[in-house]
Amino acid sequence: MKKGRSIVGIFLFFSIVSLLIAGILIYLNQTNGSNDEEKVAIKKESVHIVAIGDSLTEGVGDATNTGGYVPVVADLLEKTDAYEEVTTSNYGKNGDRSDQVLERFHENKSIQEDIASADIVVLTVGGNDIIQTFKQFFLTATEESFISPEKAYQVNLTALLTEFKKENSELELYVFGVYNPYDIYFPEIPEMQNIVEKWNKTTQKIVNETDNATFISTMNLFNPTLKQAELKNLSLNEENPSGTEINNPYLYEKDLFHPNEDGYKLMGETLFQAIEAE
């Protein structure tokens, strides 16, 4: 009799456990389904990115001729759950200084209309302002030579960001800083690096004072992991002791200034990370 009761008890125990497990599985499936529905619900239909600025936005040096960092970040965003469709408008122009980018904005209705409807605006500017000053003073250029051009750049950049926000107060702004492409070749000349660092501090300050705007540093973005000691006192055309030419794998080999395809990929990935962090 006791044996019969024990068998019944064991049967009831396993029946109850089975029902509990089944209930848990049903609950988990419903929860996962609910989460999937929530992901679909919060997924945006589209995002429009407007890129404006100089040659870094145009994509000079990109062998694919597809627009530098712009298609890179668009592709990365499309692969996430947040965006179903990513559209882009590229208003990069090789050689443009900050005053010329500002002038194009005022004169080009298409730029104004695109920014007015954009979700994200990305700006590259400042490099040509620095280059113009170097060309103007050439061998006599000092750090003091850049004080006045930097003040003019500050006015132009402030005006650009202000005008963008007037067109669309809700947009997200991302501003790339400038970089020194010759740092690895001439580490013994610190003046250029000092100028670029000061220029970036000015840019970052203005960006930080702008609502919903993010500064993206490129100071070390294109520096390969090379030992400075191996590069010291070597010219662009000399060879290092290992017999290989000094080169930066992220820069366009024809001018050693603009990014190449790999360099623009780094820019796109860095921008993507900044957007995802917001």
Q: Main attributes?
A:
five-stranded parallel sheet; alpha/beta; 10 helices; 278 residues; 53% helix; 5 strands; globular
Textual characterization of the structure:
It contains ten helices and five strands; from the N terminus they run H-E-H-H-E-H-H-E-H-H-E-H-E-H-H. By secondary structure, the chain is of the alpha/beta class. Strands 2-1-3-4-5 form a five-stranded parallel β-sheet, sandwiched between helices. Strand 4, helix 8 and strand 5 form a beta-alpha-beta unit. Helix 7 packs parallel to helix 8 (190-208). It is globular and about 70 Å long. 30% of the residues are buried.
Helix vs. strand class = alpha/beta
The strands making up the biggest β-sheet line up spatially as 2-1-3-4-5
Low-confidence parts lasting 5 or more residues at pLDDT below 50?
Answer: 36-41, 226-244
Order of helices and strands: HEHHEHHEHHEHEHH
Which range does the strand content fall in? Answer: 5-15%
Largest sheet: 5 strands, parallel
- The portion of residues assigned to helices is 40-55%
Distance between the termini: 70 Å
Mean pLDDT: 83
**What Rg do the Cα atoms give?**
27 Å
- Name the overall outline: globular
The tally of strands reads 5
Helix segment count?
10
